[in-house]
Amino acid sequence: MSLHAKLLTIFPRYLGLGAREAMAPVDSCTTPLLQDGQTTEAPLEDPKQSSSSRQNVCEDDDVDGTYYTGDGSVDSSGRRSIRAKTGGWKACPFILGNEFCERLAYYGINTNLVVYLTTVLHQGNAAAAKSVTAWSGTCYLTTFIGAFLADSYWGRYWTIGILSIFYAIGMILLTLSASLPSLKPSVCPLDNTPCESATPGQMAFFYTALYLIAFGTGGIKPCVSSFGADQFDTGDPTERAHMTSFFNWFYFSINVGALIASSVIVYIQVNVGWGIGFAIPAVTMLVAICTFFFGTPLYRNQKPGGSSLTRIAQVIVAASAKSRVQVPADERLLYEVPDKESAIQGSRKIEHTDELTCLDKAATQTAPELENRPSPWRLCTVTQVEEVKIFVRMLPIWASTIVFFTVYSQMSTFFVEQGQRMDPKLGPKFNIPAASLTVFDTLTIIVCVPLYDWFLVPLVRKFTGHPQGFTQIQRMGIGLVLATASMLVAAVVEVKRLQLAAEFDLLDNVTDPVPMSILWQIPQYFLIGASEIFTAIGQLEFFYDQAPDAMRSLASALALSTTALGNYLSSFLVAVISATSSSGSSGWIPNNLNRGHLDYFFLVVAALSALNGLFFWACSRGYRYKKVTV
Known about the structure:
Layout: H1 3-10, H2 19-23, H3 51-61, H4 88-110, H5 113-119, H6 125-141, H7 143-179, H8 200-230, H9 237-271, H10 274-294, H11 308-321, E1 349-350, H12 367-371, H13 382-399, H14 402-409, H15 414-420, E2 422-423, E3 425-426, E4 430-431, H16 438-464, H17 472-503, E5 514-517, H18 522-545, H19 552-581, H20 598-621, E6 628-629
Helix pairs in contact: 4-8, 4-9, 4-10, 5-6, 6-8, 6-19, 7-8, 7-10, 7-19, 8-19, 9-10, 9-16, 9-18, 14-19, 14-20, 16-18, 17-18, 17-20, 18-19
């Protein structure tokens, strides 16, 4: 018995399949379930036909698209996906479980990495900060490598599987680095003599492990969310609505993993030991891999379409070579393959649009080309041209989400510094660390995602008539407004804090906190968490749904790059403001914040966010959603 059959025999009820349906062969020609739950079977006329022939007959008979998926997906055997047996929520627990475990593993390393570098490997503060920043940046740069491999050659399933193994190897090596005495320097002596520095060999082993993790996590990052969304046929209205819900629960899984990592795992690393503190994330990553592969028989897979970069280059070259050719007024005269499927493997045909018509020259046929089809560097299909148009249309939306992540980055920087100058007491004996307030952002997401999915969407749907309640553009726009509000609230809190610092004569006191509870920061963390539910999740869905079928991983990588760019923009703003505001004074952001004006910085970011919101509104007004030929 095959692995597929064994799994469906053991878990038919969990997977939502009846015993008879679970054991039905994949290539049978069984019709969908009838309304009364009964099944009718239509045996083939020639029982000696091959399984390939039987598959073709079944596909031809599925005229209403209820038996097979309509998005071109295939199952683990390479056959066209059967709607009732693959994908949907049956497959998602394995993907969401994988994401939860992977994020717990990632944040189990990332959250406390700077502490490990300074206390165990004895790096200086500046060197440790640079190491963490470089590593974090690499984690986002490698997303483009994974996306390219997934879209072009390997497919998302194998990209996730292969790069996860690199990820796990890196985690195991990191655990060894923290556990074996020969792979780390000795503990600092108690007599204040200089600490022993790590040897070049020890550092080489550590960085090899760390950058294997970066290669793995970055490579799978744009693929997992896209692979999960692949389990829903966007051509089916019901499954399309479920896809939106999937992105909500995907982000929910990320934050649950991050919450456990930043609390339990960090506590173990600091109070029990770094070896066990890194071993737990390593084991969790192994669990993530097993969870992912365990769901193999249920997955729907999209075929890789070849190099997307080559296709983009072909359109640009072909359009440039025909710069003087007149585009026909009748779009039906533009070149497209006559088949139902597009010429790009794994991609449905995309309907022609009348925007960016200069690119249509690439699909314009000259007289010689009507007789003999030339190289794709001279003549491209309408679908290939529309792929490029879609990416160009998405770029302004992409640019307008960078500032959102500039706002988001304040949680780990100036929100923490602001909190350090406030009263941390919660009761007579307990003090709240300023950095711990980020838990309110995570809790907001964990609590509000189910409320959004179960209550807000059905409520809004009654007024808008939209299956998802909000359109993707509307959802992101609401989040941008909430992000701006969070900066305004942070500025108000800082104004009040500075007033109290002056009132209690604490302007030059850098040790005692201002008598203002740190809990006043909760609203600004809550607003950022709420904005993530709208903008960050909406962005994930938008870049998956609107991307060409054969470029979805690349589009997801593009969306993820806004996180890094938002952090870079924040650093740039700090550098500019520090240079321009310190002339003749301590500046807006001095070491002693009681003498500064952090409130001015928050207002600048709020103004930038508001202007970005207007830019987003202007770009989104004329945005045309993708239309595919089903």
